[in-house]
Amino acid sequence: MPTPKKKTSRSRRDMRRSHDFLVEPAVALDKKSKELVRPHRAHKGADGAYYYKGKQISAADKA
Fold this sequence. Notes:
Blueprint: H1 10-16, E1 28-29, E2 36-37, E3 43-44, E4 50-52, E5 55-58
Antiparallel strand pairs: 1-2, 3-4, 4-5
């Protein structure tokens, strides 16, 4: 089985792991409905219509 020729330093090991962290998703408060929504994404309102930046972009489903 292959083995490393040299020991990996703490600095190099930690630089490799610098992106191994969890990030909470960003949320914003919708001005009209006061719900938490993801920014830069359309979201479905309580009436079934889709909204983006507080404006309705599609009608509610009739079915």
